[in-house]
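== Sequence, structure tokens ==
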Amino acid sequence: MEEQEITTTSPEPNAQDKIQAEKVQKSIWIIIGIGIVVLSLLIASFIFLASAPTTAVEKLRDIFIIFMALESFVVGVALVILMVQLAILTNLIQNEVKPILDSTQQTANTLQGTAKFLSDNLTEPVIKLNEYIAVLKEIGSIMSFRKKK
């Protein structure tokens, strides 16, 4: 039988993975900082518009516009976070799960070969031997002059 090389992945992340994780964390903090600045500007503009001397309908319209801008900002941040998480998941699948699946496939192939080898070299000869013994017993019972009850 051929010997197969077993590959394992180390649980410790290498330096490149650490650098990539630090870049992702840095970009997330930058996005959060930008979000806080934009939110502060929206709140300041809301206070400014609410204090301006206008009619009630205009104030309501301005407040509605501000809330819609805030909602679109929140949705945008959620989409950015979703894209970052998707990138991390893709990286995890490529670098962690795929090697495990490859190793599992190799193990399954080895087991299949072992089962075929045992079937060919052990099981079939034993079955044939049992067949021959059964045939010899039957021939012996036919040849004997004993009476069956």
